[in-house]
Amino acid sequence: MIYDINKQRLPITTGTINEMEVIRSIKSELIDSNRPIAKAIHKTDCGSTMCIGFNREMKLNEHVTHKPTTLLVLYGSIIYSEKAKTLQLDQLDQYKIPISMPHTVEAREDSMILLMQG
């Protein structure tokens, strides 16, 4: 399953959800989803933290980040690809995504990642 982040934005849920319930909520929504599920955990003027859940083989097509961003794999395994580099990132691996570097993210198995921006 491929999700093209350049054509549509991931639906990001914000609001009253308790931070401790975010992963449970994403896992529940993924049962019937054909695209990644994203939820904001924390947002300030200085930065944000977002959690994105993937079912196996879900993919974010090529896109860029405009802020300093660290990707952390909470569980599962993903393939992060950019121009001259492809990395397999597994549970608790992290990677600093270069600003304005086109990249893709694909889940090798059911996975959950944190994106910390700012």
Description of the structure:
The chain is mostly beta strands and 118 residues long. It is built from one helix and eleven strands. The protein has one helix at residues 22-30, and strands spanning 2-3, 12-13, 37-43, 48-54, 59-63, 69-75, 77-82, 85-90, 94-97, 103-107, 111-117. The strands form two sheets. It has a six-stranded mixed β-sheet with strand order 2-3-4-11-6-9. A hairpin with a 4-residue loop joins β3 (37-43) and β4. The longest helix is centred in the N-terminal third of the chain and has 9 residues, at 22-30. It is globular. The mean pLDDT is 87.
What labels would you give this structure?
mainly beta; 1 helix; 6-stranded mixed beta sheet; 118 residues; 5-stranded mixed beta sheet; single chain; 8% helix; globular
How would you summarize the topology of this molecule?
Elements: E1 2-3, E2 12-13, H1 22-30, E3 37-43, E4 48-54, E5 59-63, E6 69-75, E7 77-82, E8 85-90, E9 94-97, E10 103-107, E11 111-117
Parallel strand pairs: 1-5, 2-3
Antiparallel strand pairs: 3-4, 4-11, 5-10, 6-9, 6-11, 7-8, 7-10
What's a quick, concise take on this entry?
With 118 residues, the protein is mainly beta.
What structural class is derived from the secondary structure elements? mainly beta
Termini separation comes to 29 Å
The portion of residues forming beta strands comes to over 45%
Rg for CA atoms: 13 Å
How many extended strands? Answer: 11
Number of helices, counting only DSSP H or I runs of 4 residues or more: 1
Order of helices and strands: EEHEEEEEEEEE
Low-confidence stretches: none
Give the strand order of the largest sheet, numbering strands 1, 2, ... along the chain.
2-3-4-11-6-9
Instruction: Sum up the overall morphology in one term.
Output: globular
Major sheet summary line: 6 strands, mixed
Helix content range of the residues, please? under 10%
Q: Give the overall average pLDDT.
A: 87
